[in-house]
Erythronate-4-phosphate dehydrogenase
Amino acid sequence: MKIVADENIPLLHNFFGDVGDIETYPGRALTNECVMGADILLVRSVTQVNETLLAGSNVKFVGTCTIGTDHIDTAYLQSKGITFSSAPGCNATSVVEYVISTLSVLSEVRQIDLSDITVGVVGCGNVGSRVVSTLKRLGLKVLANDPLVDQTEMVSFEEILKCDIISLHTPLTKEGDYPTYHLFDENTLAKLTEQQVLINTGRGAVIDGEALKQKLKKQPRFTAVLDVWETEPNVDIELAGLVTIGTPHIAGYSLDGKVKGTEMIYQALCRHLGLPLRHQVAQFIPSPPLSRMHFTSEAEQAWSMHTAIRTVYDVRHDHYNLMNTLQGTEQQRVQAFDQLRKQYRPRREFSTIKVFLKNTDSAMHSMFKALGFNVKSA
């Protein structure tokens, strides 16, 4: 059995090595010729899986080790009887922690008082709903909008546009009753004031990049945080120079989230083939480089929170890494963007870190639990 896979799938050989012979390619370089002899195709989000890629092949199973499916022509797969599986929710925690790190940084660089703001979340699927619940547990006021979810706790899109911080977590759709392509176009962006913050960790083209660039030129104090870009991997240099934080599509790139995606597709393939589950993440994932932090009763709560968040993950590291690649030719920039993702460091999630609290009050304990840390009494 032959498996063709994106070379960036973590623990690929650990999980699938005894299922079949593995042949790897860069995700953007996968072609019809590459998959012609394959029985199984494993991808991440950068490969467009459609008739052009699969025509004439023997592929019977397609798995994407990612949460999104807008790069997959599911209708075509269904018409050809090809089994498909994705990994919904695998990187939701990673994206939540990206948003939390961003809010922590903005509280400093933009002097935003997190206790006095309202966060609006657009899109309440696996990721958006997790963002909402986490921020609420931290005591922030959060409003949510998603026309495809039970409307009991939803607000209108117009109400979201009045929030201090707006965080986007929608898939990219161009058809249907609620298309998200250029949801934030020139007219929508014009309704946002300089004091507001727009964060996009969903899909780049949910925001009209050209319209956002013009807004930032006219209103340089407007805060835009982009992890996804309409033209990626060819990032608009001018737009990148205007955003407050810009990163190379890595919000969901924690090691824990990525390997969970691999494990979920491994399990789906085993079910498809009728094979026993021989492997699980715990067999392969290394110990975190930072394993514990200690705080005493002398530590002020807000300082402790921001210190812990930024110690584990400071989004500015990824911002500066991307900004440092925006030189050279277009081809060099495109290659650099993909290299940042391919060689991304093993970022670990908060839950892998033990936080020891000595003689601290219950509020401190609750805060760290809400963030997702593994809290222990010292």
